[in-house]
Amino acid sequence: MASLVALSACSGSTGTPAARPSPITEAQSAAMQPRDTHLAQLYETSCKACHTVRDTGAPLTGDRNAWDPRWAKGEQELTRNAVAGLNGMPPGGQCFACKPEDYAALIRFMAGR
User: CA nearest 5: which of 50, 67, 65, 37?
Assistant: First the structure.
């Protein structure tokens, strides 16, 4: 049930498939985990609910094609967007335990950097 609650926070859902194919599948994205146990816990309880499901509108973890245009904005801008929220992403990505450095590390992981 927690997954359904977390998934509902991903309000960017369009209900339609992604416009271009991704080089990874949702299952591959869902299987990815940060090596750092602290980050893995934060990812598991916040980021994973949206960043492993294509129809949420969030770029899939490890999908560099989806992340590259965002990454071009710079890591600081991505971190600011994560903290403030953007489009369908709620402020802080619903990561209530995240510190600014956690956001940056999680973004690097999800973007494949």
Answer: 50
